[in-house]
Write a structure and sequence with these properties.
single chain, 253 residues, mainly alpha, 0% strand
């Protein structure tokens, strides 16, 4: 067993240096996430003005929009790394695509949860079958299917290729979700920015806009931390699987 361990160390030179660098990046991203989230909470609940009609219930807007932004960004990263994987066939690209898709699903769930809570206070109903809600729900199921493909039995590279194609095609729904309220206008989901030819929506008060930008920045840093942490964990799983296969091969000799 000790000889196997020594050979494994020889195969992975500089492991300690790599782990130290990874831990430093993790610490920096975690610290940045904590600080930015605290700052965002201040801007959301104290700095930003309170909406006159909905009152404090409107504060969920910042979490709802930021979660949607993070989900879109995560699926875009999956889209990009899926293309890179199909071109270069390097596993690290597949890992980034997979982890980012998982993060996107989590924050799509948050969008689909905070949305009805906000809708109840503003529309007096939990759910309405209108374009943006329907397309967001479809987006959620598309990437659930992506994860299910990854969990199927079989060789990882075949699953990765199929999932990559699915991740690329599935991203087509993201712009549909974004433009849904512009293409099929309804009395619900108001257009805040870019309405009509003039591209001027209903607008948003200055302190609210600042609070929104701060929350978007905080969620972006959170995404960076989750992606880095997730990729690190997946790489560890891959190393463990390779090590187990090596030990199994050595025992069968």
């Amino acid at each position: 067993m000790s000889m196997n361990l020594e050979r494994e160390k020889a195969v992975l030179p500089g492991t300690n240096l790599t782990e130290t660098k990874t831990n430093n990046i993790t610490s920096i991203l975690f610290g940045g996430t904590v600080v930015s989230m605290l700052v965002a909470l201040y801007f959301i609940f104290i700095y930003a003005a309170e909406e006159k009609t909905m009152g404090a219930a409107q504060k969920i807007f910042y979490f709802h929009v930021s979660s949607a932004w993070l989900a879109f960004m995560a699926f875009f990263v999956t889209f990009v790394f899926s293309i890179l994987f199909l071109i270069k066939r390097e596993r690290i690209f597949d890992t980034y695509a997979y982890v980012s898709a998982e993060i996107g699903i989590v924050f799509t769930i948050i969008v689909l949860t905070t949305g009805p809570i906000w809708a109840k206070s503003s529309w007096n109903t939990w759910w309405v079958w209108e374009p943006r809600l329907i397309t967001t729900l479809i987006l959620f199921f598309i990437y659930i299917a992506y994860i299910m493909i990854r969990q199927m039995d079989g060789v990882w590279d075949k699953k990765a290729r199929l999932a990559a194609v699915f991740g690329i095609i599935g991203f087509a729904d993201v712009p549909i979700v974004f433009f849904a309220i512009r293409w099929w206008q309804t009395k619900f989901h108001p257009i805040v920015f870019g309405n009509g030819v003039s591209q001027k929506g209903g607008g948003i008060e200055g302190t609210m806009l600042t609070g929104l930008f701060v929350s978007l920045a905080a969620f972006t840093i959170l995404y960076s931390y989750l992606l880095h942490k997730g990729v690190t964990f997946e790489n560890m799983k891959i190393k463990v699987e390779r090590y187990k296969e090596k030990l199994r091969a050595d025992m069968e000799k």
